[in-house]
Amino acid sequence: MWAPDVLSMIEYGEKRNLTFDEYKGFASRKPFLAALMAIFMFSLSGIPPFAGFFGKYYIFPAAIQEGYAWLAIVGVFASVVGIYYYIRVIIYMYFYDGDVSLEVEPSFVGVAALVISAIAVVQLGIFPSMVLHLTAGLF
What is the pLDDT of residues 90-114, one digit of tens each? Predict the structure, then answer.
């Protein structure tokens, strides 16, 4: 479960695709969902201490080591562009007042899945060696 699942939960309640402007002030109306979405967005951005940081930290040097330095450079540029869009959503949710009231009534199971995923994203960001040890025996 990543940020798109939070988005799909929101957009399912609205029955339409939403724009950036419609997420303005979302954190003041649904602070828990906004916090979960922010965790996932920071992870996708590659900001520590989330799992996405270590994913990028390990993939770029591996690409360089295998002779794909050009691909690592493209990946870094794509990550920088991605950061702009991920952080933009967080800024809209937390730093702008919105006039659109989103009708979101998430299910208990949906929120539980998001919470478990958020815990995993944070834990894997703090202790990435857990996954490395588990997967080392597979290769």
Answer: 999 999 987 777 777 888 888 898 9
